[in-house]
């Protein structure tokens, strides 16, 4: 017997063998007598083996006292899909109060079928069956029967139980019941002819909601007569029903009259027509593009027109000219590729006029995209200008278009490549930005500021003392003599002498009332913090100790003062979506775009950027080069020598990528650098070196030893590397690595074990399950992932 398993998009099967039988017996014993966690994991694994011995053990586990074990056991039985016993499932459905167990049992009954199963499912679709079914009494906030009812209805559809159709309709029309029309219509759609007859009747029901559910339920029906019912619903008076019928028709691949859709009064119907892959006449598209009420639909119609043949270009240009004056930016942007499709002198002139008079971002971006698709000298000039735009979206679009042009041949392609090289090298500086961007960098002339920093002729700022009182400004007629206010700054020697001699510092006489003049005027509970380095030096140990012990108590007045002071703080203006350094942003965008480049000059520019002073530039350049190398690019020896000659790198990620780049060379000096990187203290660098050296036979690297490394990154890399090795002696080391750090690498270890012979892995599993509880749990988790 073979159990087919799919993992990581690859077929994987556990073959029945002597090792499998031994392992199943061990799991059955753990399921019967193990700890709770052992039982749950054993149940999950046994369901994946699906043998008769496993099914018997799982059926017995349905009566376990722990509800988690019962839930895992019934789900394991359903996942096996064979050998299910209807009586066993019915017992769990009737006697187990746990909702998850009941729902899984219903799934099993939908597989087994039979008269008894259909009868019970029909009963539960209509009633709670309180006398025969045990319900969880603790779920007062939610009635479990509501979920059981829905699941039972769907199960009856899966079983194609035509006899239950009347009961399902009765449950759906119950005025005191819950909303089950989606489940009922879905079940009817799977019941064959009898179900289709009921759905045909529901297609003319008085309730629009029922008709809509009917249309959507027909998406899974496989009868040829479904199309007739859908066409009736396609002509329904309710727009929601029409939309549902149209969506189902298109999903089923049946023909829907796109002309009717496009002429429908419901915008959603017209949107479906424009999204459909069918052919629409040019005249109808033009009508929608210039006459529809919904701008979104008009733009969609223009998009379809840009990919179709233009029937009457002169009439189109006239309509465009009439609509340009009042058209929105998005609409004009959608017009640009349509006009480019015309390729007449009038269309070219109109495009030039739009480019001159409509400078909005959306329109400009449309022209930039167009210039990347249709090379021209004028278009290249526009791209060269807009690559330094103040808007990031425009810069990105211009760089993308330049990259497309660089992929071609000729002078335009060469000039586009040169422009990209300049962008990567940082030679393109952005244009002047808006005033709100430059405010933070502009220096203000102190002579422009008047009294109190507010400028001549303006009222001074409000001054507030510690108590929150407003200090009145001096009257204009009160002139203060400069000699009385400005005192000569004492020298450092005089200041030291005054402090050591205990002389009080000189304080100006004209001090506002209420202000604190001397340190002695401070309250007892307030400590005078030194205002200079010299003051801090002159503090004695007792004063420092006092500062550390006596806290400052802030009262309501203090907090009010702080709130007022916070309002006076000038905040820096931040414009969302704009980088702080646009020049750097141009470089970073260009570096990432060049990650798909194949031109030698662009690769040379990337290598040159590795020596830039800014870490972001070095990171982006390294990332693009690694991407190119992984896609088959071979770096020249000159590039390797330039990388080797770079100064030491501080950033860990850049260093790791540099090691990967040097690892592609056979240069002895580069190999020495990679070998030395294996002993680096950072995980990323050493893991990169391990990955490079493991692929070189001359390096003599023992990958198995790194499975025991306390550094997770190295263990992950080692697991990836030993996956390509069929050495059976690696199995124990792989399992030991999986147990480290509370089993964080169990999924990776299980994936690694799939590369080894199953007989060897299952034989090792028997040994791993023979240990203490933590070892057993780790082995069970690895096995569960192994057969998942």
Automatic annotation (TrEMBL):
Residues 441-461 are annotated as: Disordered. SMART domains: EZ_HEAT. It comes from the Bacteria. PANTHER family: DEOXYHYPUSINE HYDROXYLASE (PTHR12697:SF5), PBS LYASE HEAT-LIKE PROTEIN (PTHR12697). This is HEAT repeat.
């Amino acid at each position: 017997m073979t159990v087919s398993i799919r993992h990581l998009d690859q077929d994987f099967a556990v073959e029945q063998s002597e090792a499998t039988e031994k392992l199943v017996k061990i799991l059955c014993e753990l399921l019967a007598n193990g700890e709770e966690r052992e039982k749950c994991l054993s149940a999950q694994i046994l369901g994946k083996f699906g043998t008769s011995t496993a099914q018997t053990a799982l059926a017995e586990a349905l009566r376990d006292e722990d509800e988690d074990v019962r839930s895992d056991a019934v789900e394991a039985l359903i996942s096996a899909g064979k050998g299910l016993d209807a009586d066993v499932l019915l017992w769990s459905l009737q006697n187990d109060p746990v909702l998850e167990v009941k729902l899984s049992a219903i799934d099993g009954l939908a597989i087994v079928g039979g008269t008894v199963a259909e009868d019970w499912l029909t009963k539960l679709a209509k009633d709670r069956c309180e006398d025969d079914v045990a319900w969880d009494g603790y779920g007062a906030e939610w009635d479990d029967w509501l979920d059981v009812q829905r699941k039972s209805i769907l199960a009856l559809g899966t079983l194609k139980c035509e006899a239950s159709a009347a009961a399902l309709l009765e449950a759906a029309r119950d005025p005191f019941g819950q909303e089950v029309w989606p489940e009922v219509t879905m079940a009817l759609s799977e019941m064959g002819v009898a179900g289709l007859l009921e759905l045909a009747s529901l297609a003319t029901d008085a309730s629009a909601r029922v008709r809509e559910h009917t249309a959507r339920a027909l998406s899974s029906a496989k009868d040829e007569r479904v199309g007739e019912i859908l066409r009736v619903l396609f002509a329904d008076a309710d727009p929601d029903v029409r939309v549902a019928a149209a969506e189902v028709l298109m999903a089923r691949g049946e023909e829907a009259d796109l002309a009717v859709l496009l002429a429908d009064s419901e915008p959603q119907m017209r949107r479906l027509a424009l999204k459909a892959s069918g052919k629409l006449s040019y005249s109808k598209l033009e009508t929608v593009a210039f006459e529809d009420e919904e701008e979104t639909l008009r733009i969609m119609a223009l998009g379809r027109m840009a990919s179709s043949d233009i029937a009457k270009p002169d009439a189109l240009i006239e309509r465009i000219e009439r609509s340009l004056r009042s058209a929105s930016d998005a609409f004009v942007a959608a017009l640009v590729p349509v006009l480019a499709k015309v390729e007449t002198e009038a269309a070219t002139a109109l495009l030039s006029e739009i480019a001159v008079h409509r400078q909005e971002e959306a329109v400009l971006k449309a022209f930039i995209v167009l210039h990347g698709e249709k090379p021209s000298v004028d278009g290249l000039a526009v791209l060269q200008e807009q690559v330094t735009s103040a808007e990031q979206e425009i810069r990105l679009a211009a760089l993308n278009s330049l990259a497309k042009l660089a992929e071609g041949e000729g002078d335009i392609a060469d000039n586009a490549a040169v422009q990209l090289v300049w962008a990567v090298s940082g030679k393109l500086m952005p244009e002047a930005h808006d005033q709100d961007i430059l405010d933070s960098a502009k220096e203000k002339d102190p002579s422009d500021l008047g009294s109190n920093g507010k400028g001549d002729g303006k009222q001074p700022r409000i001054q507030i003392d510690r108590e929150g009182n407003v200090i009145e400004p001096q009257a204009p007629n009160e002139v203060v003599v400069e000699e009385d206010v400005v005192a000569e700054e004492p020298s450092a020697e005089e200041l030291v002498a005054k402090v050591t001699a205990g002389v009080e510092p000189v304080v100006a006489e004209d001090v506002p009332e209420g202000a604190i003049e001397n340190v002695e005027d401070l309250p007892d509970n307030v400590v005078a913090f030194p205002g200079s380095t010299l003051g801090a030096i002159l503090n004695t140990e007792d004063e420092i100790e006092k500062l550390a012990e006596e806290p400052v108590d802030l009262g309501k007045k203090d907090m009010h003062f702080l709130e007022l002071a916070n309002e006076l703080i000038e905040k820096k203006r931040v414009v969302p979506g704009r980088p702080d350094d646009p020049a750097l942003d141009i470089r970073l965008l260009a570096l990432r775009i060049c990650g798909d480049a194949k031109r030698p000059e662009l690769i040379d520019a990337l290598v040159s950027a590795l020596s830039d002073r800014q870490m972001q530039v070095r990171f982006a350049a390294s990332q693009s080069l690694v991407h190119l190398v992984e896609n088959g690019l071979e770096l020249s020896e000159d590039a390797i020598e330039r990388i080797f000659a770079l100064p030491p790198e501080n950033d860990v990620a850049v260093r790791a990528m540099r090691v990967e780049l040097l690892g592609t060379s056979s240069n002895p000096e580069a190999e020495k650098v990679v070998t030395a990187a294996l002993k680096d203290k950072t995980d990323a660098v050493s893991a990169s070196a391990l990955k490079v050296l493991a692929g070189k036979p001359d390096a003599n690297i023992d990958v198995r030893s790194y499975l025991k490394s306390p550094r997770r990154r190295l263990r992950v890399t080692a697991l990836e590397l030993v996956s390509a090795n069929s050495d059976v002696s690696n199995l124990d080391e792989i399992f030991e690595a999986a147990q480290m750090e509370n089993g964080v690498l169990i999924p990776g270890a299980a994936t690694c074990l799939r590369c080894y012979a199953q007989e060897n892995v299952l034989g090792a599993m028997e040994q791993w399950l023979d240990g203490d509880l933590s070892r057993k749990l780790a082995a069970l988790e690895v096995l569960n992932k192994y057969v998942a």
